[in-house]
Amino acid sequence: MSSFRQFEEPDHALLYKNYREKPPARLIERIVEFLREKYTGPLKQAVDLGCGSGQCTFLLSKYFETVLGTDISQAQISQALQGTAEEECNNVNFCVSPAETIALEDHSVQLITACVAAHWFDLDKVYEEGRRVLCDGGVMAFLCMDYLIVEIGDDLERNQQFLKIMQDVHKIMDPYFAPPAALAFNKYRDITIPYSDLTREYDYEIGVTTNLSKILGAIKSYSAFQTFCKVKGEDEGKKLMQDIKDRFLKIATIPNDDPDANVLTLKRRYFVVMARV
Ligand SMILES: C[S@@+](CC[C@H](N)C(=O)[O-])C[C@H]1O[C@@H](n2cnc3c(N)ncnc32)[C@H](O)[C@@H]1O
């Protein structure tokens, strides 16, 4: 399998920074617990591959002396570097690098993560590089998320209608995802990290109170939406987003139809596959 190049344009990287939330803190804690089950040494170095604008990287900083976030995209790393000042993390570094090459010493790393990214990599090369840089008992963990869930309070009827909108969005978008995204749609069940104690866990949920503009932004940040616009043209992309917005507004009874009113909940459900060398 070879790696795929996407997410590299500055506008797309900005959509990421603005609309892609961090993964659940509880999941990061669980990954560190998994590492701690068999590794008792100091937590010196973690590496977050395909780090984007640092969504997962910053969450690792409280556990490790140093965290390195790497991404093949210069535009993503530029956004991540800007985030470093906002997050006030002085133990996090970022650099442009393919996931298949990690610029660290042999056996110097305790944890390698990749968040919503592993499906784009040349995994055999990443496993090989992991064996080189991970210390004895070190862990590789690939986390990823399911489709977005939009809700308004516990209004079952309207939540079902939102679900239908999101299912329709995916019916339109899914053909525009590059083939490796199928690994994510199948919750990484086809990814087997060839180390010890292979573990799969599901249903780590995170929800944020948000508004329709941000939900539309999250949909626009899909690589499939970017491809849709390239294939069908920007006008078709705008029309699609307007249709989605109109459908939401019809159901949401947002005050004054204000897409910036924070009355919606955006939920993301994460899963992980992890193993130790
Ligand atoms: C869907 S984004 C995820 C970003 C971030 N980790 C997050 O959780 O939102 C996938 C990221 O993987 C990066 N990527 C894709 N293939 C890569 C590769 N072979 N090596 C390093 N980064 C890669 C992309 O540039 C992009 O930033």
Automatic annotation (TrEMBL):
Annotated Methyltransferase domain residues: 45-154
InterPro entries (UniProt xref): Diverse_substrate_MTase, Methyltranfer_dom, SAM-dependent_MTases_sf
Any one GO molecular-function label of the UniProt entry: S-adenosylmethionine-dependent methyltransferase activity
Organism superkingdom: Eukaryota
Protein name, per record: Putative S-adenosylmethionine-dependent methyltransferase CRG1
UniProtKB keywords: Methyltransferase, Transferase
GO BP of this protein: methylation
Segments crossing the lipid bilayer: none
